[in-house]
Amino acid sequence: MVISGVSKSDSLDILQPANLTSDMILEMEEEFALLRNAFSKTSITDEHIAFLTKQWYISVLARIRINAFRIELVGGLYEDLLSSLVASVEAEAAVGNAVYILPSLYNHDCDPNAHIIWIDNADAKIKALRDIDEGEELRICYIDASMDHNARQEILLQGFGFQCNCSRCLHGD
């Protein structure tokens, strides 16, 4: 999208980047070299890919890593939302991953008040999981909320770079 001019090269800069290990950075540098080599064999001009530096590539991948959503297509009615979500995760029913700017700005909570649902054409809809007070922040769970406290803390720290301090975690639930 950036090469075609539809998006600006800094379009994801508002999103939080992931903390990357040296092994991850090395792997991304190798991928970058392959990508640059592939572009050198096309008719795409250097002017169109001037933005594509190693630092830009790693920065974008770091943001995608923690801001991308698993897209799971759910059909039918939503009477039993939580059961269908658990079933789709267990069945590995994802059809892909995508970064949506607005949903990426929702904060995490291990006891969320909302969940993002992906429908037919991968549009995102937010579904309230309980009554939400006026002015209350919409919060989603980034991980499987059924895990125990220590597992959730470890995954959130390793995968998303933060220690969760939601009320559920503060109580050791």
UniProtKB/TrEMBL annotation:
GO terms for cellular component: nucleus. SUPFAM superfamilies: SET domain. It holds the Pfam family SET. It comes from the Eukaryota. InterPro entries: H3K4_H4K5_MeTrfase, SET_dom, SET_dom_sf. Residues 18-143 form the SET domain. PANTHER family: HISTONE-LYSINE N-METHYLTRANSFERASE ATXR4, HISTONE-LYSINE N-METHYLTRANSFERASE SMYD. This is SET domain-containing protein. It comes from Lupinus angustifolius. The lineage of its organism: Eukaryota, Viridiplantae, Streptophyta, Embryophyta, Tracheophyta.
